[in-house]
Amino acid sequence: MNHHSLLAQVVNIATSAGEVILDVYDKEYEIAHKADGSPVTTADQRAHDVIVERLQALTPDIPVLSEESKGIDVEDRLQWPQLWLVDPLDGTKEFIRRNGEFSVNIGLAENGKPILGVVYSPCTRTSYFAAQGTGAWRQITGKPAQRIQVESYDPSRPRMVASRSHSGEAVNAFRDALTAASGTAPQIVSMGSALKACVVAQGDADVYPRLAPTSEWDTCASHCVLNEAGGQLIDCAGTELNYNKASILNPWFLAIADSNVDWLRFCPPEPVQG
């Protein structure tokens, strides 16, 4: 199956998961907490079940690694040349706060690189999607898809995306360094979930510094969209993020629109993982 036809079917799967999420969103639901303290709801598990079942039917030879997956052996996983990386409900905190800024993320990685991605916003019924070589697209359900691309940087009006739930001192330091270099404070676009990288991809921001922990399923889908829109997702050393590592945790990273700008000089030192 070629990437183009596969992409359309994955958009449909993400949309179906979004409908399940909204069904829970409109009702009372229980909130549990994982070992790391992060919240999880009934919607996370129901969306996971829909996505995994349909991906396994669509591509039975490609394994699925979801945030809600359990019992997958690391040594086995490292042998997989391809895998689906899925966050069935990215932005659970936004879901709980009922601000609508959560997403369904379905990404396909091959030999460590993101080759297909769908980010779906259930509340706005908007899909961001791309596959290697197809360009990046945004589509509101029932309307024609529109090609999206990043914008060149204008230093007189810097625009920075900030996380709604995870900012902190490091992001403040990045913002201050950007302000000092440009001579003007950046316009801050606040957003939740993987939609932040999509804001950069569609030309509405220049940079999204994520200077806090994330996992591979948080970024694989939006990484592909950003790449195909002409941007980059890089760590604070300038290296593109890689997938299906022994640790599924990502380093700090920047989603950038204009690669001609030295964004790395604004990054504070990343703490040593230990």
In short:
The protein is α+β, with helices and mostly antiparallel strands. The chain is 31% helix and 28% strand.
Task: Describe the 3D structure.
Helices cover 31% and strands 28% of the residues. It is α+β, with helices and mostly antiparallel strands. The chain has two domains: 3-148, Fructose-1,6-Bisphosphatase, subunit A, domain 1 (Fructose-1,6-Bisphosphatase, Chain A, domain 1), CATH 3.30.540; 159-266, 3-Layer(aba) Sandwich (D-Maltodextrin-Binding Protein, domain 2), CATH 3.40.190. The strands form five sheets. Strands 3-4-5-6-7-8-9 form a seven-stranded mixed sheet, with helices on both faces. It has a three-stranded antiparallel sheet with strand order 12-16-14, with helices on one face. α3 (74-77) links the parallel β3 (64-66) and β4 (82-90). α6 (195-201) runs parallel beside α7 (216-228). The longest helix is centred in the N-terminal third of the chain and has 23 residues, at 3-25. The mean pLDDT is 91.
Q: Name the shape in a single word.
A: globular
Figure out the total of helices.
7
Describe the strand arrangement of the main beta sheet, using strand numbers: 3-4-5-6-7-8-9
CATH topology of the largest domain: Fructose-1,6-Bisphosphatase, Chain A, domain 1
Kindly report the average pLDDT value.
Answer: 91
> What's the domain count?
2
Helix content: 25-40%
Distance between the termini: 42 Å
Beta-strand share of residues: 25-35%
List keywords for this structure.
274 residues, alpha+beta, Fructose-1,6-Bisphosphatase, Chain A, domain 1, D-Maltodextrin-Binding Protein, domain 2, 2 domains, three-stranded antiparallel β-sheet, 7 helices
